[in-house]
Amino acid sequence: MTTCPLQVLTLPTAPYPDQRPGTSGLRKKVFVFQSKRNYLQNFVQSIYSSIDLLDRQGSTMVVGGDGRYFNQTAIEVIVQMAAANGVGRLVIGHHGIMSTPAVSCVIRKYKAIGGIVLTASHNPGGREGDFGIKFNTANGGPAQDAVTNRIFQISRTIEEYAICPEIRVDLATLSKQTFDLENKFKPFTVEIVDSVESYANMLRNIFDFAALKELLSGENHIKIQLDAMHGVMGPYVKRILCEELGSPANSAINCVPLQDFGGQHPDPNLTYAADLVETMRGGQYDFGAAFDGDGDRSMILGKHGFFVNPSDSVAVIAANVFSIPYFQHTGVRGYARSMPTSAALDNVARATKIELYETPTGWKFFGNLMDAGKLSLCGEESFGTGADHIREKDGLWAVLAWLSILATRKQSVEDIIKDHWQTFGRNFFTKYDYEEVDLDAAIQMMEDLELRILGKAFMGQRFAVGEKLYQVEKADNFEYTDPVDGRICRNQGLRIIFTDGSRIIYRLSGTGSMGATVRVYIDSYEKDPDKIFRDPQVMLEPLVTVALKVSQLHERTGRSGPSVIT
Fold this sequence. Notes:
Residues 19-161, 198-303, 311-424 form the Alpha-D-phosphohexomutase alpha/beta/alpha domain. Keywords: Cytoplasm, Magnesium, Metal-binding, Phosphoprotein. This is Phosphoglucomutase-1. The protein contains 19 helices and 27 strands. By secondary structure, the chain is an alpha/beta fold. A seven-stranded mixed sheet has the order 2-6-5-3-4-9-8, sandwiched between helices. Strands 20-21-24-25-26-19-27 form a seven-stranded antiparallel sheet. Strand 13 and strand 14 form a beta hairpin.
């Protein structure tokens, strides 16, 4: 403990107009946080000021990040400002590192009023990369719109921030550090905690670790390859999969968290996890997975590189949900998917007579349903899957869910998927991402597209591509009414739905740091047993042609093709 009370300062500042949090917090290039005076301080103060003073005084908050460049610098500021703003205790991950799912877990374990997550998820890191800061509330999930709107409004008029600049915290040592502050009756406490243990203990209570250990290290064990992509998941994979469940140490690669993720893009898809895909194609491993920067997303692969589409992944977990002991005890209250995600989960929900919710993109919508006891399992097409054990998507949970299914069914990943398609039919699905598009051009394209598809002449219109004929049944800008509190969320994405159930969806993403990302989603259901095993890109090519023709996306954005196809 410090011997002399530390001084709390109130310093002047000026607002910035661009600190509106997106679906995953505030994300900007690192140089924005470094070069704009008090840019970080303004946003952190806005977070603290958004919490009622009585709730803030003496409270506990959690802080963790994915280890990217600027992470420790930001934590120092967050600690100094937490003390000055009356927070009583901060719980911080060892070395400042804690996965996003683990932050959610620790918030709930410590009954904290919230947490600050330092991540830009799957966006690149390093000096030239991205940095992000997100506020999670007491349920462990991303802040709802009312909270983020309040943070943004405060940021637009902020005139000063409070800070205790003399506080220095040792993030490298597991410890409890206390500081006396002037005019404070109780000391300010910082606890540096093991980043993995609370989260691992939670997983032990969800899955059958004995069965998983037998699967991974028993007499007839399978061989796995897990790629942490130099993000936050390295310590978790090593501790849980290797040390506890017995998978060989060389089954986990790229497990040292690096500030620049080894110069790679920590996005677990076929494009950015290409090395893992190539390794899996060799046939040496039965199961593979890659994780994103902050650990809330994962890609699943089978032997010979068999790719599990994220929309199929959550549907397969739903169809085999009782392979997971947690659900044997809790039952299943409901399923949910984001609107752009394929309707594969709908088919399972319909067959099992379990309620299905279609929400806007953003885990906070799932969290609201979970808090109301309406939802057990959910997923997004962007490689995010999770359940009501926490209020974030959870990449390692999804991997253990799949391994639990393998242990129960004693089949390969590919056979499980193909059996699923034969039972429920197949939703052919793809997503085209056009990244860093000129923002004005993207907005104008979306506005013109909305006018076109909402016009009376568009209803019933037919599009012929080769032997395929698509007729428009419905077109709208997706609107969601929350069944819990009745809130209405408008303008969530443009949808064209055809008479055969096929869908085209257009969205502008709010998670990039520069320009705009235009996303186009193509979803087509097929139940003909002779067609369900065909190549998805071939099956979807006619619908992709329609999507580009209707939107004139290439002409309007100057792009000849997408940045990423998943």
